[in-house]
């Protein structure tokens, strides 16, 4: 199986599982839940989780029932965080804009995505499930804390870097760590997976922010210095590369490396020195 085909299959598997979870959200006041999850349908964070898992797990232990619900949970949490960020922008600005939603359905949809993420993760029968719940909770707390802090004022460029680290970066970190945890990663290598995930999440989000034409929720930061944010992405991706080198001595990280390097080869490097 080629790398490109494997990513296509992983994405299809995640989409299929998400469809079953989001089906009840097609009616009443929960439609914002599906709209938010479908807004970014690349499933990059779910793929990151699955590739991290497969870097460690033996072929015989690569049961989709072990990792697919976790990948779904991360994508649901991603949707929840995006919806919360839209609401915070809306309440902070006090004016209508392209992200404005009816607050009550949006709040209900956010609650649905949040609880569905935890329900999806609970489907897994794994000795390390408790640690995965702790990681998911830490991600959620970091993201919501960053949103609450940063949407109350116009951040400077350094604040923007911290904000992206504590939102998209933490989502990536959580995805990689949960995948590795489910596969039984030891404490020596856990932090390296965290660094890989954070580098991917930060780099990927900065690509989206400057490549979305203002449609991305982080377009609120587009007044910041683009060069500095791109350089920050490069820094995080360089850190991820170093951690991948450490991991390669113990695990087969070839697919994971190609996946993460695909972020660095995109628009992150779009500004010349």
Describe the protein in words.
The termini are far apart. The chain is globular and about 50 Å long. It is 72% helix and 0% strand. The C terminus is likely disordered. Helix 3 runs antiparallel to helix 4 and helix 7 packs across helix 8. The protein is mostly helical and 273 residues long. The chain contains ten helices and no strands.
Secondary structure layout plus pairing:
Elements: H1 3-22, H2 31-39, H3 44-56, H4 64-93, H5 103-121, H6 129-150, H7 157-182, H8 187-211, H9 226-247, H10 254-264
Shape: globular
By secondary-structure content and strand pairing, the structural class works out as mainly alpha
Rg from Cα: 18 Å
Give unreliable regions as ranges.
92-98, 213-220, 269-273
| Fraction of residues in β-strands | under 5%
Number of strands: 0
Largest sheet descriptor: none
Average predicted local confidence, pLDDT: 84
The total of helices stands at: 10
SSE order = HHHHHHHHHH
Helical amount: over 70%
Q: For the record, give the distance between the C-alpha atoms at the N and C termini, rounded to a whole number.
A: 38 Å
């Amino acid at each position: 199986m080629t790398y490109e085909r494997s990513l296509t299959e992983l994405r299809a598997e995640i989409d299929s599982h998400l469809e079953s979870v989001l089906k009840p959200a097609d009616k009443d006041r929960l439609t914002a839940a599906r709209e938010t999850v479908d807004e970014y349908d690349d499933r990059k964070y779910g793929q990151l989780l699955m590739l991290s898992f497969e870097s460690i797990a033996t072929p015989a232990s690569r049961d989709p029932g072990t990792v697919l619900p976790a990948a779904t949970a991360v994508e649901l949490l991603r949707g929840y965080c995006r919806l919360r960020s839209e609401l915070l922008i809306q309440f902070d600005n006090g004016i209508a804009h392209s992200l404005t939603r009816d607050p009550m359905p949006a709040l209900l949809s956010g609650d649905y995505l949040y609880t569905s993420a935890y329900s999806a993760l609970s489907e897994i029968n794994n000795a390390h499930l408790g640690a995965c719940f702790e990681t998911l909770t830490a991600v959620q707390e970091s993201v919501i804390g960053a949103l609450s802090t940063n949407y109350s004022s116009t951040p400077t460029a350094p604040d923007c870097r911290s904000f992206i680290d504590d939102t998209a970066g933490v989502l990536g970190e959580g995805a990689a760590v949960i995948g590795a945890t489910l596969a039984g990663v030891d404490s020596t290598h856990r932090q390296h997976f965290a660094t890989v995930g954070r580098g991917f999440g930060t780099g990927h989000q900065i690509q989206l922010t400057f490549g979305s034409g203002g449609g991305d929720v982080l377009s609120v930061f587009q007044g910041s210095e683009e060069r500095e944010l791109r350089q920050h992405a490069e820094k995080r991706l360089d850190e991820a590369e170093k951690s991948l080198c450490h991991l390669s001595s113990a695990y087969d990280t070839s697919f994971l490396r190609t996946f993460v390097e695909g972020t660095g080869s995109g628009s992150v490097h779009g500004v010349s020195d």
